[in-house]
Amino acid sequence: MMTETEILKALSNVEEPDLGKDIVTLNMVKDIQINGNNVSFTVVLTTPACPMKDRIGSACVNAIKLLVHKDAVVNVNFTSHTTSKRSDEGKVLPGVKNIIAVVSGKGGVGKSTVAANLALALAQDGANVGLMDADIYGPSVPIMFGVRGERPMMREVKGKGFIMPLERFGIKLMSIGLLVDEKSAVVWRGPMASSAIRQFVTDVDWGELDYLVIDMPPGTGDIHLTLMQLVPVTGAIIVTTPQQVALADARKGIAMFAQAQLNVPIIGLVENMAYFTPAELPNNKYYLFGKEGGKRLADEYDLNLLGQIPLVQSICEGGDIGIPVMLSDDTITKKAFEEFTATTVRLISTINAEVKPENFAKAMATG
Q: Which of 258, 274, 177, 182 is nearest to 217 (CA)?
């Protein structure tokens, strides 16, 4: 007859790959049930989007069969409690556990595409996700999600009016493009633009979210400083393309987060339009804008390279018709975004646990 003590002792040999400790020490094992040779329990993951779930489950089964009973029938259930490093009082975005700022030093590098598909990939993995389009002067979310012309509703909560985000593809959306006629130019000075961003944070009912992805405007300006000082950002993702002019501007974005008063860690860098792959030649790569410029930049600043996203025609076409690539049948680009998202999620878990990911590259290689 197996005992709970034996099960826990066996599971203490199963390590959470990113946090570097075993799942028993991390208090991730719950509800152990034993009935003869049958044993079941629940593993509480750090996020519903955990890319290591299958690996952890297999390790649990193997540990019990090897160390407790070779004929054991093991049923591993999973649930999640998304981690957060928020230490503020929760007055701003109180129901949001993690806030991810997607930034770029210049326009035209596909920052909005990266933000949109990151949000979609997180949602497809079971997370509650919001996408805030903070690019006041060039909002892209209404077009990319097919909600042009739609307007958010208002509702009153405890005597205060709140804007209700639109919902599309399982994601909560808010953009200045949903409030202003798209034919009208937004001609605002810095303080007015910053005021609009404040309203997106304080007057929008985002509800309970595991992740809020913020599509930042390009460059380094008032809106960036306002948001970083107003919101407890978990980390930032730098988007660049391989060519030198984009890399030069990406350096400015990296330098912005190096300022002590911001206190926002850089999760890593993603290289968009890394290579061109024709649909009819899926195994071919053509480096139209240079090769691995983003990888070299990440190495130069000792940043994590989160992914290299190919340039394919379907990305542009999908964005124009309101169907992002994560919802398309483009398997090449979807896989790139899925791998980028998995890496991002794992790094956020290490940030929240205050674990320095020195061995992260090794963990990725063996994962």
A: 177
CB neighbours of 149 closer than 8 A, spacing ≥ 6? 142
∠ Cα 39 43 48 (to 5°)? 140
Does 184 have pLDDT greater than 70? no
Count the alpha carbons within 13 Å of 167 in the hemisphere toward its beta carbon.
Answer: 8
pLDDT value, residue 231: 87
**pLDDT band of 364, cuts 50, 70, 90:** very low
Question: What pTM was estimated for this model as a whole?
Answer: 0.88
192 Cβ contact list (under 8 Å, min separation 6):
none
Tell me how far CA of residue 257 lies from CA of 111, 238, 265, 267, 287, in angstroms.
17, 10, 7, 11, 29
pLDDT, tens digit (0-9, with 9 covering 90-100), for 8-29: 999 999 999 888 899 999 999 9
What is the three-class DSSP state of 11? helix
Burial class (CB in 10 A: 0-12, 13-18, 19+), 272: buried
Report the C-alpha gap between 200 and 165 in whole angstroms: 10
CA dihedral of residues 45, 50, 53, 54 (deg, nearest 10): 170
Sequence-distant (≥ 6) Cβ neighbours of residue 163 within 8 angstroms:
152, 153, 154, 174, 199, 203, 204, 205
Alpha-carbon torsion 355, 91, 176, 224, what sign? negative
Q: 329 falls in which pLDDT band (50, 70, 90)?
A: confident
